[in-house]
Write a structure and sequence with these properties.
Helix content is about 35%, strand content about 25%. By secondary structure, the protein is an alpha/beta fold. Helix 1 links the parallel strand 1 and strand 2.
Length: about 350
Amino acid sequence: MSIDKKETVSLFCLTPGGMALARRVRQFLPVTAYCAEKYVEPGFTAFPDSFADTLVERFRKDDSLIVIGATGIVIRVLAPYLSDKFHDPAVVVMDEKATNVISLLSGHIGGANDLTRYLAAALNANPVITTATDVNEVSALDSLAKQMKGVLPTPRDSIKTINQLLACGKKVGLYVDPELLKITSLELGDFDTRGFTILKHLEKKPVDLAAMVCISVFSSQPFWPIPVHKLIPKRVVLGIGCRRGVDSQLLSDMVRKKLISLNIEPLSVSAIGSIDIKADEPALLDLADEYNIDLALFVAQELHDCAAHFPESEFVKKTVGVGSVSQPIAWLLSQGHLIGDTTKENGITITVGVAE
C-alpha cells in the first residue's frame, strides 16, 4: 500500500505509550500527529481544543484517521457524525502496544482495510479486518472500483448486491468491453479480481452466473439475461478552447452532446483541460464543477510542440500564443489517444481523448 501525496492522514495519541508508537508510525507514514498539550514535542501538534473536537474536525476534512487508543472512545465521539461508506474517511484504531490494528470505518472505499494491513505489516501487529469479502478472501466491487479509479452508476445497490454474492461464494462474471480494450491498456491482471469469474467472450458466458459486472466507458451495452452492474473507469479527458465570456450552459450542452455522439458515459470524464489564460473563465470553471474535477491548465509553451501536428488558427495563435488549444491539450492529457473528431461551434472547440 502507498499513501497518495494528495491524501491527508491525521494520527491521534492520548498517552505516553501512544506517543512512543506514534513516533514509530511517523518514520514510515506521512501523518499530521496530534497529542495533548502536555506531551507536545517536535513533530506533534497539540489538540487545538479537546481530543474529541479535534477528532471531529479532522474527520470532516481528512482522508484517513489513525487513533492510538480505545475503540470505544472513537465510536462514541464519531457516532453522531457518521454519514456512509461513500463519504466517511477511513478510521483505524490501534492499541499503544501495537498488538492489534483495527479497521473501524470505511474499509473499502475509504481505504481503512489497506491502511490497516500496511500499518500491521510495518509494526508486526495483528490486522483486524471484519468485512465479509476480506474474511472470505475475495475481492469487493467497491475495492475494484477504487483500484481502477472508476465509478458505479448505482453504487449502493451494486456494491451491496455484488459483494454479498462474492462473500457467499456465488459466481459473478467480470467482463471488459472489447471496445475499451481497443483504446486503453487496461489489464485485469493489474487488479484484485479474486472471486470473480473472468469472461473473455460473452458467447461463452457460463449459464450459472448470479450477476455480472461490465467494465466500460461507453453508454450502450448489449442485453444480457442476468443482472448487470456497470463499472465505469474514469479515463476520458477533454481538451477545450473557447472564446472569452462563453455561456456556461452552452458549453455544458456541447460537451454533453459530444459525449453522446461518441457513446461515452459522462461519469467516465476524469480531466478537463484548457490554456492557462482561461484560468478564470466562468464557463470552464462551471464545467469542472459539474464534473467534480479540477480544471487542468497548460501554458502555451507546453502546447507548442504538439500543436504543430494539428490545424492551427492564426487568430488563436495571436490571441493565446499557440495556434491550437483543445487538440494538443487532449493529446497531452491522454498520452496521444484521441477519439473522434474535434468539434468547433459557437466559439468553442472540444477534443476528446482516453487516457491509458
